[in-house]
Amino acid sequence: MDHEMDMDLCKIVQDLMGVVDNLLMRVSTLEQSTEQAPRKTRAGRGKRAIAETDAPTEKCRNLATKWKLDVGHEWGKFKNYCLAHDARYANFESAFRNWLANAYERKMKGAA
């Protein structure tokens, strides 16, 4: 009976060693794949600097008109800010709309 138990224990140990070896191979593979995977940086998320060809969209022009803001003046300030601070955006229309909203808020505070 002891011999049978020893054989069963040997089989269990062998099976466990096979499982451990398999897990170690998987961990090694995962470590290698994460080492090779490029990390996304801020610059790698589709953001870019403002270009000479960028200009206010019709939607932004209409918003500035609605809020009685000088779109040319605000675009110039926005563009200078972007250049001075190396600001990078994924969507310049959206960034400029935010700029206009802030200008409108400042205007309203000054009028109060």
General description of the model:
The protein has 112 residues and is mainly alpha-helical. The protein is 71% helix and 4% strand. Strands 1-2 form a two-stranded antiparallel ribbon. The longest helix is centred in the first third of the chain and has 35 residues, at 2-36. The termini are far apart.
Strand content: under 5%
Our Rg estimate from Cα atoms comes to 31 Å
| Spatial order of the strands forming the largest sheet | 1-2
Overall spatial form: rod-shaped
Q: How many runs of DSSP E, i.e. beta strands?
A: 2
Order of helices and strands: HEHHEH
Described by strand count, sense and barrel closure, the largest sheet is: 2 strands, antiparallel
Q: Would you identify the regions where 5 or more consecutive residues have pLDDT less than 50? A: none
Mean pLDDT: 85
C-alpha end-to-end distance: 96 Å
The portion of residues assigned to helices is over 70%
Q: Number of helical segments? A: 4
| SS content category | mainly alpha
How would the blueprint of this fold be written?
Blueprint: H1 2-36, E1 48-49, H2 58-66, H3 71-85, E2 88-89, H4 92-111
Antiparallel strand pairs: 1-2
Helix pairs in contact: 2-4, 3-4
Short description:
This protein has 112 residues and is mainly alpha-helical. The protein is built from 4 helices and 2 strands, in the order αβααβα.
